[in-house]
Amino acid sequence: MTELVRVLRGLRRLPDDPRGAFAHRLRIGLAVAALILILSLLR
Questions:
Q1: Rounded-to-integer distance, Cα 32 and Cα 43, Å
Q2: pLDDT at residue 30 in the model
Q3: Using an 8 Å Cβ cutoff, are 24 and 14 in contact?
Q4: Which residues have C-beta within 8 Å of that of residue 10, sequence separation ≥ 6?
Q5: Taking Cα atoms as reference points, which of 33, 9, 32, 13 lies closest to residue 21?
Q6: What pTM was computed for the model?
Q7: Which of 32, 34, 15 has the alpha carbon at shortest distance from 23?
Q8: Phi and psi for 36 in degrees, rounded to 5?
Q9: pLDDT at 13 (0 to 100)
Q10: Where are the membrane-spanning stretches (predicted)?
Q11: Residue 10 has pLDDT above 80, yes or no
């Protein structure tokens, strides 16, 4: 559980510049979408 909290805190850190923050949010969104797709295909 502690490892999960550490990973989630790392995901919250955003770069100072707007382009970096957008790219970070886009990567996180794509990762979540891929995870949802994989989980839905397994069911």
A1: 17
A2: 93
A3: yes
A4: none
A5: 13
A6: 0.61
A7: 15
A8: -65, -40
A9: 64
A10: 22-42
A11: no
